[in-house]
Amino acid sequence: MDASSDPYLPYDGGGDNIPLRELHKRGTHYTMTNGGSINSSTHLLDLLDEPIPGVGTYDDFHTIDWVREKCKDRERHRRINSKKKESAWEMTKSLYDAWSGWLVVTLTGLASGALAGLIDIAADWMTDLKEGICLSALWYNHEQCCWGSNETTFEERDKCPQWKTWAELIIGQAEGPGSYIMNYIMYIFWALSFAFLAVSLVKVFAPYACGSGIPEIKTILSGFIIRGYLGKWTLMIKTITLVLAVASGLSLGKEGPLVHVACCCGNIFSYLFPKYSTNEAKKREVLSAASAAGVSVAFGAPIGGVLFSLEEVSYYFPLKTLWRSFFAALVAAFVLRSINPFGNSRLVLFYVEYHTPWYLFELFPFILLGVFGGLWGAFFIRANIAWCRRRKSTKFGKYPVLEVIIVAAITAVIAFPNPYTRLNTSELIKELFTDCGPLESSSLCDYRNDMNASKIVDDIPDRPAGLGVYSAIWQLCLALIFKIIMTVFTFGIKVPSGLFIPSMAIGAIAGRIVGIAVEQLAYYHHDWFIFKEWCEVGADCITPGLYAMVGAAACLGGVTRMTVSLVVIVFELTGGLEYIVPLMAAVMTSKWVGDAFGREGIYEAHIRLNGYPFLDAKEEFTHTTLAADVMRPRRNDPPLAVLTQDNMTVDDIENMINETSYNGFPVIMSKESQRLVGFALRRDLTIAIESARKKQEGIVGSSRVCFAQHTPSLPAESPRPLKLRSILDMSPFTVTDHTPMEIVVDIFRKLGLRQCLVTHNGIVLGIITKKNILEHLEQLKQHVEPLTPPWHYNKKRYPPSYGPDGKPRPRFNNVQLSPIDEREKTEEEVHLLNNTTL
């Protein structure tokens, strides 16, 4: 098969958008291997002092080797410490290296806060542009336009002469059917224009700018490389199109994409510091801090951002990264607070404060909201994944611009008549969270009020609901159905689309409805035993806004399965310690209910859908398979390609590289002895040979390649040998064929391995890559038996190095995989087979 014609070929850990269900069809011809640790000097050839460019780097859609990267960083650190006492310049370089981590997270926090403020201001202005324009200052949104007006009234505080609707500008009518229809048409026009411009920019300039970005961020932080996903073009297009997508009125949010924006900033700034630009593992520490900064500016929750990075996205999170994440979140929040994009001296639009305590009875409706959140999360994950899978497998997915236009058109047509769906989602959440006071004019606060209007907010008792409240409840029910359906079809389209805000809006709507119901129940039946002890007549017992906040947390927890970080984020939104228990009860209930239908959150589900090589640490491996059941090659596959340490030529190695697609090769002692010596990466071999041909005289195709410490004696007329021991990994990770896969999976998760070799008595039998493990896990999930026979058959197929006659078995440059005759079984094998229950 032509290597260039196969899109799956270069990927060792799962390619972009390669569903795992396709992997079992591909065979081991596509099996990729990866290097282990590094314990050699940085120069490649013994006669060269300088390192070879490209060695130690990775190709696109490949997985990094965490062990090798950490060893490289320790070697760099030791070299800097050994030189810092030699001169003042070396001491300065040492200090710069030590402080570079704090510098890069400071720059990341500054950029994240500035971009978040810019996005908030632009999105608010463009959202209001769908309804009208400020004639006195075109750059003002609706609220800013009316700030300085002296002609506004309490009931109509959003109306002022300076703000003109499109109907007033075009047909000169402010009221009536004609005005309504013209505003309706202009609303749809602007929504479609913003959506079309957003999807066009994404498609033409930066395809990676679409979606939430969090599934890919999680995959990248686990060690996968996606070139360009965190680049400057992606950052610029994502920032612009995020504003357009939010302003279009689609059922999406900007909070999730802000994490992607912050990680783009961290990635770009990391290239200014060699400590991070040359080490992929160290760069991921910066990205972990950047994700914390992204959540910090998204919700105004610096501590919640740090916990989000720790709980949800980070794969490797040492203590030093915790401190730097906290500092990056602090800097980002400070910058956003200085910009003050909402004009309320708060970091988010829907910051609220409650003053009424909650009571023990209220835990029951709070838990019910948690059940609703878990059910919503389970439904959304299944429905959205089914739709995304259908999009991938049908022609509909080939027309992303058309899909976005259709979704935007349906959203705009249905959203405009309902005032709660016409609102910007953040504005909707703010209104649902807000407690009713004497200064509120919303329909949700249209209670029959007989009290003295001069009383302060804290003294307002529970009151009977008026017609406005009942009308608002019906509108909220319709808005709830609309949001549930449209969010399923919106998340995953080719524009920046976050899930935090739509999920919170759905939960806030449900919570507000439940809160009003409990409030009215307590008012009309205050003599019931559940209310009699703590809810007196004329007292302010129930806070519907609190129920909206708890419902929002429950629905977001049901979708993402976050727990600790979510509670802290919502706690920082409200600023009240006393509501932590209701939040914890609702969030944990939503997680338990959601886990009953499936343990995957929405981000893990999208990672699996796209085929990204991500080993989720939350999953438990409970099966009894062994390493021999998973390793490649299988029984009927081509033999494992290996190198010998001192009897192959340059042409032999180049032919093997050209004829195979593997990313690395085990190095054995000789044809007769299959004992493992080390592991050589395909990329390093190619670079080393090319460099040797250019810089060393006498290196030809017939030159002997030597991986051993000492070059073997050669005839005098032989060409000059090529020594490649310095690129050889002398300590690759190995397991025996009897090792339980539970242990193997744990090793891959905790050490971040790309591959490990399978041996038996020191003889190489096969290899296990991260992709092999993901394929095996997928087979087990689908209740498909592994394609390999039981382990004792594997054992029978791998004979000892010497036959029963005492002579070495004939072998070539590959491990022998042919089964041996029954009479050739060793005593050990017979004993093991006889004592095995099949």
Automatic annotation (TrEMBL):
UniProt-annotated location(s): Cell membrane; Early endosome membrane; Late endosome membrane; Lysosome membrane
Domain of life where this protein originates: Eukaryota
SMART domains: CBS
CDD domains from the UniProt entry: CBS_pair_voltage-gated_CLC_euk_bac, ClC_3_like
Lipid bilayer topology: Multi-pass membrane protein
Domain called CBS: residue spans: 631-695, 728-787
Entry's transmembrane regions: 99-123, 187-209, 229-250, 257-274, 286-310, 359-381, 401-420, 472-493, 505-526, 546-571
Annotated region described as Disordered, given as residue ranges: 791-838
InterPro entries: CBS_dom, CBS_dom_sf, Cl-channel_core, ClC, ClC3
Composition bias, Basic and acidic residues: 820-831
Sorted UniProt keywords: Antiport, ATP-binding, CBS domain, Cell membrane, Chloride, Endosome, Glycoprotein, Ion transport, Lysosome, Membrane, Nucleotide-binding, Repeat, Transmembrane, Transmembrane helix, Transport
Main location per the UniProt record: membrane
Role according to the record: Strongly outwardly rectifying, electrogenic H(+)/Cl(-)exchanger which mediates the exchange of chloride ions against protons. The CLC channel family contains both chloride channels and proton-coupled anion transporters that exchange chloride or another anion for protons. The presence of conserved gating glutamate residues is typical for family members that function as antiporters.
Family: Belongs to the chloride channel (TC 2.A.49) family. ClC-3/CLCN3 subfamily.
Protein name (database record): Chloride channel protein
